[in-house]
Amino acid sequence: MCGQPQRHDPRASQTSRVPADSSLKWIVPINTSPFAIVSCYSALLGFFLCGLFVPSIVAIIFGLLALSDLKRRPHLAGRGRAWFGLIVGAASLALATVLIAMWLSSPDPFGNSSF
Fold this sequence. Notes:
Layout: H1 10-15, H2 24-27, H3 34-48, H4 54-72, H5 79-104
């Protein structure tokens, strides 16, 4: 009431809290290295757009930056995202290189066939 000190009930604040869900950190990357986030999404972009080298190269670079960042700041999460970016970025870069090499080594890569 007015003028009287309010009593704090610790049970009330505990019940109103949202429970920590470990699966939520994969959707909302809180306390995650920003380098790992960039690496992960660049690797996905490079994988789905296989003919482009730039996202795969960005994924590899940022994956390496994320791993070194996570060594310096061990309280952050994102090691799995960084490794994912490195592995998928390297695999999609290798696949794009092989596909382009196969296309260029074909008898008529540019479609200039003459009858």
